[in-house]
Each structure stands twice: as C-alpha cells, then as structure tokens.
Predict the structure of Peroxisomal biogenesis factor 3.
Amino acid sequence: MFGFIPSCIRRHKKKLLFLGGVVGGVAILNTYMKRKLTEWEAQRTAEICDQLKRSNHFENTITTCDTVFMSCVPKIRQVVSKTVDVNDIVKQVSTNPPNKIELWEQLKVYVFTQTLGEMYAQCLLCILVRVQMSVLSGYVFMSRCTNASATEQQQKYMSRIEDFILNGINMVLNHIQRVVRDNLRLVPLHQMLKLQDIERIIRSIQNSILEGGDNFLQEITSSLMPASSSSVENDEFLDSISLETKDIIECRDFSCVLQLCVDSGISSLMDRMSECYVILSDGKGTFVNPHDFAVPFAKLIPVMHNVFCQHQPTEQGSFVHTLLQLEPLNNFAANIYESFSQKTS
C-alpha cells in the first residue's frame, strides 16, 4: 500500500503539478485580489473624505462670500448716491430757474443712472467676491498655506474688493451714465409712458451696455487686477493669482453669468417701477391696472427717485437676497473652486 502512493505520484506527476499550479495560482490571485480590494477601499475612502472636506470647505467659502458681499452692499448705495448726486439738481429745479428744462433732462439721466448703476454694481461685486473667494479657497485647500506670509498675500489679494468699491463702482457709473444719456436722448419729458415702455427703455440700455461688454469688463479688470504687482517684492503668488482671476473675469462664462444676474436685477427693478405706477394711479379713485396706466415721463422721474431712496438694499426680500440664491452664479463659483482645489503645485 505504501508503494502505491509513490507509484501513483509517478504516473500522474504532470496532472499533480498542473493541479498544484492551479491551486497555487488561485491562492496567489486571491491574495492579490484581497490586497487590491483593500487598496481600492482605502483609496475610495480617502476620495470620499476628500470630497466631504472639499464640499464643507466650499460651503464655508460661499457663506463667507455672502457675509462679505452683504457688508459691502450699503457702501455701494453710498458711493452711488455720492457720485450721482440728484439732490443738487432737485434744489436747483425747485427754484424755477431759466434752464429748468435742461436740469430736468439731466435729472432723468441721473435717476436712471442711480437705479441701474446700483444694480449693475451689486451684480458685479457679488460675482467678483465669489470668483476671488473661490480661487483663493481652492489654492488654500490644496496648499494648506497658513503661515504669516501666505496670510498677508491672501489679504492683499482680497483687498481688491475694496478697490472695486473705491474705484470700480465709479467706472461702472460713468459707463452706464453715458449709455443712459444716449438712450434717453430721444425720450422727451412730455411723452406718455406705460410700464411696458419703461421696460423697453431699460432693456435698450441693457443691450447697449452688452454691446460694449468686453471693453467694459476689461477696463474694470485692468484696474482691479493689474498685470503685475512689481511694486511688491517676491510676490509671485499675488501676480499668479491676479492673472488667473483676470482671465476668469474676461472669459465668456463670466459675461454670461453677469447677464443672468442683470436679467434678475431688471425683473426686480420692474417690480419697483410697478410701485411707482401704483402710487401715481392712487388719485384716480378707482383701481387702475399699472400696465394700462400711462404718465408723462417728467411726472415719473421724482416718484422713481423716491422709491429708489425708500428701498434699502439689504432689506428682506430685496434684490441682493435673490442674487445670492441664483443657481448659475453658485454653479460658476463651484466650478472655479473645483478647478483650483485640484491643481497640483
């Protein structure tokens, strides 16, 4: 019996070797697969953790954007009211001077410039804050820069928001005032206007601004994001991040998002214009549909200015709250953050 086993082994040597190879291969493959599965699970867990960290970081970034923007909104109103000062013209008109018609022509331009200028400045500032914060947060997420030098660079970069408030808004107002003057030149003060006529005028102004949009944005960008910060030594990071931000502001997506924000802003303005027509139709004694009611342009201007002053930009339900919730705006910020948070050094 004991001789049978060696004999059997000799007779089936090849089969046994093949069977041993198969068993050994399966064992090796099983070990390899277990190791790969463990590695894949570890990698997948790390990716999920990274996505969660990235998501939480971006949500915190958006919250910070909203806080910064809302704190700047009252400053926009101050700059607009100071730069386009209507009060002086109103005082002159009240004295019934010989050039009263000329002053009224100037007044209608100023009132429309105030209203549209504030809305455009709000849209631009909201997008700029989101762009800058998304770019910077992406860099911070990747580099984890927390040293004093990095913090100083980040503060210099974000100070461009203050530059926009101090200088950029005036550029916006000057550009819009030129466009408003050209579009209102053919609208006489005695012309009877319905609500839809006002919307047509505002849309015409919007289209004129859109036609010169590229030059308009480049002018603002050149002021806020200079090509070089050579006055600051060893500031390669600031140069790099400023150029990248400049490219984003001048890209097609930025213009598209800006127009979507402006469209939302015009809808909000038309709601305010409806208030003007309701106020002007109150003396009729019966209900008048604002869309069917027409008033002389000159009569509409002071009511429009009063409504502009009465509405506080940060009050509940105002346009800025709607602006912060616009999905295309937040998606634009998310795409920027995703791009910069995955960059390698």
Q: What stands out?
A: The radius of gyration is 32 Å. The chain has 13 helices and two strands. Confidence is low (pLDDT under 50) at residues 227-234.
